[in-house]
Amino acid sequence: MSQPETPEQEAESPFSGERAPLSPRVDLYTAAVLLAFGLGVVALALQMPTFIEQSQTGLTAPGIVPGFHGTVVAILAILLGLRAIRRGALSGSPAPARALASGDGRKLLIAAGLGVLYAGVLVGRMPFWMASALFVFAFTTAFEWEASAQRRWRRVIEAALLGLGTGLAVTYVFERIFLVRLP
User: Given CA atoms 68, 72, 78, 79 in this order, what sign does their dihedral have?
Assistant: First the structure.
């Protein structure tokens, strides 16, 4: 039977090795950028019209959802910053920096490219369920392609089913439950 962990003992990180987390100072910088972004979103959401004179309630204001999202991003940024400070981000000696893994930049470009393709090209040019299904299929396939060469075709079939299910479920939820017309 193993002994219970004391505060002095830390469990081995699941990210040990090449996927070790970045230094606390990087987390602090990231928190600062995300806090500025979140507060910017909140500021812009507050400038949006409220339509109170038309509907007699502020709950129909178009800035409520972006304001909520900006608030959540700002709060999470503060928590990330506090965690980074607790981990030593402000200490005099910088922690050893970890370089990005070799494929991280490529993965970022793939994710960004697929997101732009989805939002900028697919949505509005085809039914929403189909655009969403294609996006989820392409995204899943792109990031699972190298994971297992032996089971690659099974992963492609799973990605197709996941994409189709997601496309149909999102369309159903928004159009039937939330009564939102999708493009």
Answer: positive
**pLDDT one-digit tens code per residue, 82-105:** 999 998 888 876 555 555 566 778
Tell me the C-alpha distance between 66 and 73, whole Å.
10
Q: How far is CA 27 from CA 13, 14, 37, 109, in A?
A: 17, 18, 15, 21
Residues in the chain: 183
Higher pLDDT among residues 38 and 48, named by residue: 38
Measure the CA–CA gap between 103 and 147, rounded to whole angstroms: 13
CA distance 52 to 17: 56
Phi and psi, residue 127, nearest 5°: -55, 145
Confidence at residue 19, expressed as pLDDT on a 0 to 100 scale:
59
Of 65, 88, 84, which Cα lies nearest the Cα of 178?
65
Q: For every residue of the chain, which 3-state class applies, written as one string?
A: CCCCCCCCCCCCCCCCCCCCCCCHHHHHHHHHHHHHHHHHHHHHHHCCCCCHHHHCCHHHCCCHHHHHHHHHHHHHHHHHHHHHHHCCCCCCCCCCCCCCCCCHHHHHHHHHHHHHHHHHHHECCECHHHHHHHHHHHHHHHHHCCCCCCCHHHHHHHHHHHHHHHHHHHHHHHHHHCCCCCC
Prediction pTM value: 0.60
